[in-house]
Amino acid sequence: MTQPIRLGVNIDHIATLRNARGGRHPDPLRAAKLAEQAGADGITAHLREDRRHIVDRDIERLSAELTVPLNLEMAATQEMLEIARQHRPHACCLVPERRAEVTTEGGLDVAGQQDTLKRFVDELGAAGARVSLFIDPERQQLEAAAAIGAPVVELHTGAYCDAFLEAAAQGQAPDDATHRELDRIVEGARLAAALGLECHAGHGLTFDTVKPVAALPQVVELNIGHFLIGEATFTGLDAAIRRMRELMDQAREAAAAAL
């Protein structure tokens, strides 16, 4: 039986909008509570070194007031480790971080940083967090994640989404590049399961790109943020999340029926 798929809603860009002007509005905590009411199974927030969107006070409030799990996205730094130990979120997703990037540009190089990342996996796990590694869907990275004892991986779906949107912008159906990138995710999810890793996915997913990823039986959670916050400016956050939830569930049900 194909298990249900969870939706984690990333609220970073509610904080981006707030920070553009300063003050307290719009409030990320309010967005998180609305997301829960609309069907989100968890909330994701990325506390960056430069605090460009989510800030420490947001993590304090989310940790204290959420009734769904909080997934803290963080770089593998001592500062973030101490913050995670203090607030003890349900989950911590280790992501690469460069100050100059606009958004996360790719997955962690787990294979090249095994010793460093193993320490964070072990210490965060000891603090009670479900630890995941944000990686590209590549065999080398998946095998390295398993080797250092990470219980969860989150597959980077950005290249697939970018290829899909590029074809759409040219008035074309999904092209060979789109299918190649989707195939990488399919194979990555299968390998993750074979290695005993819980498999999540996210980055760049939209109403148009979510179904093929949500249909993968090995993927148990999707984390989606930027698109939902952008769509909310037109339809409202509740409607955007409910529509995403509906599409994910449709894809899952269709995949189960095809078995």
UniProtKB/TrEMBL annotation:
Residues binding 3-amino-2-oxopropyl phosphate: N10, R21, G204, G225, H226
One GO term of the biological process aspect: pyridoxine biosynthetic process
Its EC number(s): 2.6.99.2
Residues where 1-deoxy-D-xylulose 5-phosphate binds: D12, H13, R48, H53, T103
Keyword Manganese listed: no
EC class name: transferase
Pfam family, one: PdxJ
Subcellular location: Cytoplasm
GO cellular component: cytosol
Keyword entries, A-Z: Cytoplasm, Pyridoxine biosynthesis, Transferase
UniProt catalytic activity: 3-amino-2-oxopropyl phosphate + 1-deoxy-D-xylulose 5-phosphate = pyridoxine 5'-phosphate + phosphate + 2 H2O + H(+)
Residues at the site labelled Transition state stabilizer: E154
Domain of life: Bacteria
Pathway the protein takes part in: Cofactor biosynthesis; pyridoxine 5'-phosphate biosynthesis; pyridoxine 5'-phosphate from D-erythrose 4-phosphate: step 5/5
Active-site residues (renumbered): H46, E73, H203
Molecular-function annotations in GO: pyridoxine 5'-phosphate synthase activity
SUPFAM superfamilies: Pyridoxine 5'-phosphate synthase (SSF63892)
Quaternary assembly: Homooctamer; tetramer of dimers.
Function: Catalyzes the complicated ring closure reaction between the two acyclic compounds 1-deoxy-D-xylulose-5-phosphate (DXP) and 3-amino-2-oxopropyl phosphate (1-amino-acetone-3-phosphate or AAP) to form pyridoxine 5'-phosphate (PNP) and inorganic phosphate.
Family label: Belongs to the PNP synthase family.
NCBIfam families (alphabetical): pdxJ, PRK05265.1-2, PRK05265.1-3, PRK05265.1-5
Designated name of the protein: Pyridoxine 5'-phosphate synthase
Organism annotation: Rhodovibrio salinarum
